[in-house]
What we know:
This protein is of the alpha+beta class and about 120 residues long. It is about 15% helix and about 35% strand.
Amino acid sequence: MTSDLPKCSRGEIWLLDWNPRRGSEQGGFRPGIILQSDLGNHAEGARTTVVVPLTTQGRAYAFYVPIPKGKENGLPTDSWANTTQVFTVDKSRLAKRLGKATPSQMKALALAIQAVLDF
């Protein structure tokens, strides 16, 4: 039963519990953007969602999408979405909804992911 799991939607920014981490994966508590479609997010029995982690260590790199701090997204500092690390996570990792990315940020994420995967 999934009623005890948070309900998330595409484009939302959540604080996630990334522990335990392995190798160069993200670790600790840090925000991530929900990438999965709402068809998958809201499906009955769906326990997982697809996310991309945010980092405050931005790089001038095509695969890092800037997400400036703001009221709408709830981020306390300027961040970057690291599209080289797309994860499927159990929704139990979703600790707190912070806010939402803008449509232009989601479009930039889609383009960066296309580049990462060479689509």
